[in-house]
Amino acid sequence: MARLSHRIPTTVWRAPSTWAVRPVTWLPLLLGLSLFGLGEGLLVRSDWGATPWTVFAQGIARHAHVPIGWSTIAISAAVLLLWWPLRERPGLGTVTNLIVIAGVLDVTATNVPVPASQVGRGLFVALAVAAIGAGSALYLTTGLGPGPRDGLMTSLHRRLGVSVVYVRLSLEATVLVIGWLLGGTVGVGTAVFASTIGFAIGAGLRGAEWVSQRMAR
């Protein structure tokens, strides 16, 4: 369990195709996406900065003079276009990703109070990274298709043969720098997230593989 996984493991709950859901697949899918949304919300409520992709969206919104919601949609659409040459295919998980994560993020960011102490804010950042790492691992191992950004990660991992840990770290660092240069807001939480999320996903994938092996016995 202490080691990181550098690939997407095949689990007992994996769907036979991106649009074919088995009963055993629903729990890891919905739990994974809910954890991801929770982590995004906790990072926002830490008041220590947002995720690198949100910083990127802020920078685009500032220069395009559009709301951040519209810039986020535009970025997601552009990332989906990058799937085509990489031969990544959307699935039920791709669609569910957009609905569940947004819903849980909104509920968390609306109802969870900002911690009064620096220790509390630091705890929120740590919990956010852990939740997004575990959530990403769970829904990626369902085989139902990743979200736009995770699809880019998994397709590059498959095409280049590079560990998902380092692919994710590179993507997060790239969009963070671009977003910052465009005027997006960067905080301590942003830096912590960008530098640790790849390893958190690697740990989450290792954990998912471990659970799947125990279930298969």
Secondary-structure map:
Blueprint (H helix, E strand, L loop, with lengths): L22 H23 L6 H13 L3 H19 L5 H20 L6 H23 L7 H13 L3 H18 L6 H29 L1
Describe this structure in words.
This protein has one domain (23-216). It is mainly α. The model has no long low-confidence stretch (mean pLDDT 90). It has eight helices and no strands. α6 packs across α7.
Defining traits:
217 residues; 73% helix; mainly alpha; globular
Low-confidence stretches: none
Query: What percent of the residues sit in helical stretches (DSSP H or I)?
Result: over 70%
Which class do the helix and strand fractions yield? mainly alpha
- State the end-to-end CA separation: 17 Å
Overall residue-averaged pLDDT value: 90
Give a short account of the largest sheet.
none
Indicate the overall shape: globular
Reading the helices and strands in chain order gives HHHHHHHH
What's the number of helices? 8
**What proportion strand?**
under 5%
The total strand number stands at 0
Q: Please give the radius of gyration in angstroms.
A: 17 Å
Q: How many separate domains make up the residues? A: 1
Compact overview of the structure:
This protein has helices at 23-45, 52-64, 68-86, 92-111, 118-140, 148-160, 164-181, 188-216. With 217 residues, it is an all-alpha fold.
